[in-house]
Amino acid sequence: MIQSEPKISVCIPAYNRASVLSDLLESVLSQNFEDFELVINEDCSPERDQIRAIVARFISKYPKRKIKYHENQTNLGYDANLRDLIERSSGEYCVFMGNDDLMCPNALQTITNAIGNYPNVGIYLRSFASFEDDPKNIIQYFKYFDKEIFFPSGASTITTFYKRSVVIPGVTLHRISALKYSTNAFDGSLLYQIYLVANILVDMNGVFSPEIVTLYRNGGIPDFGNSEAEKGKFVPKTRTIDSSINFMKGMLEIAHATEISRNVKIYKSIVNDLSNYSYPILSVQADKPIIDFFKYYIELIKLGLGKRLLFHLYFISIVLLGVHRMESIIGFIKRKLGYTPALGSVYKGHHQQNE
Q1: Exposed/middle/buried for 106, CB within 10 Å: 0-12, 13-18, 19+?
Q2: pLDDT below 50 — which residues of the chain?
Q3: Is 123:204 a contact under the CB 8 Å cutoff?
Q4: How far, rounded to the nearest angstrom, does the alpha carbon of residue 94 sit from its chain's CA centroid?
Q5: Are 204 and 62 contained in the same domain?
Q6: Structural domain boundaries enclosing 211
């Protein structure tokens, strides 16, 4: 009997963080959805032995689940590891999960249902929540719209999906299309998924659904900067100002390269969208001395993010009120609205099904 390919490949790039891996695997393997495989790439981390043992335990615990586990011979780095995960997958769609995040109950069914409601879907834009320590301790919800929405292929959809696909848990893309656009040109950017999102949406449609499907763990210590592609751009165990600048440069370089190579006008609108929603871009370095934080602000202006008034208001508000108060205010606004407010000219797609 020929075994059909699964609908979904859940892809996990594993590097350290073995202490929280069990919770992630349990959240995936306990899904009330059968048509999926789990693909894990361990990227030559110091905790390889612990990760291997944990995965082996779950293979025994869930013998009917299809679990692929691979150990890289060298440290590929985030972007190349994502690319290798896609190549090792066999599902129609790949759903990515960070190695310390969690999948919500019914997530895979929710994703599959939304994709199935519309034609030629290449990207699913998820809703997620962030938590600290305990998944019951939700800090903030990231729900961009209040209902399921169909987004036709093209520049407007790319702009909406671009920055909203940076956080990895739940990012879902069409596997064959991802293979079609495979490249190592942006290795070391930590942004391979948004390169794929932008290129796939030139030809294929997108869909958003408001159900929270993943939980993003706040406070994790970054492990980027170990691979050859990442050295010089990122520093393991810390977030330097230079690393944040390099990250933003990567976002803009990918947008610019996609605009040229695919002949789709997206760069200016993406910069404007980043500027309108630049609070997290600024706040990530707000713990630095004020003079260093100001220099960071100036460097972001040089990159083009200072063209929108909101960017400057965020900076002033962080300096005057602090991050804690600002995040309380932002969280309050989101809770009152039930979704993230639309700032600037955010494209909101089509609300009708099967359009």
Answers
A1: middle
A2: 1-2, 353-355
A3: yes
A4: 13
A5: yes
A6: 8-217
